[in-house]
Amino acid sequence: MTGTFQIANKIRTLRFMADEMTQQALAERVGVTRQTIMAIEKGKYSPSLEVAFKIARVFGKPLEEVFQYKEASR
């Protein structure tokens, strides 16, 4: 593989579609802090596999619908 890759996510959109769920509410359901959810959402932090699966499960989505591994824009 060439280039730089990053993990993108659709957490903000999914929260909005889930009756505008707050970062705090998601954090409580996943078992992490609101700051962790905020950092993951902004792409500043990549979640552990366990946390990624927990987030996907909260929204009832497969992991690939919540997180994408794609080439970073330059």
TrEMBL record:
<keyword id="KW-0238">DNA-binding</keyword>
<dbReference type="InterPro" id="IPR001387">
    <property type="entry name" value="Cro/C1-type_HTH"/>
</dbReference>
<dbReference type="InterPro" id="IPR010982">
    <property type="entry name" value="Lambda_DNA-bd_dom_sf"/>
</dbReference>
<dbReference type="Pfam" id="PF01381">
    <property type="entry name" value="HTH_3"/>
</dbReference>
<protein>
    <submittedName>
        <fullName>Helix-turn-helix transcriptional regulator</fullName>
    </submittedName>
</protein>
<feature type="domain" description="HTH cro/C1-type">
    <location>
        <begin position="21"/>
        <end position="66"/>
    </location>
</feature>
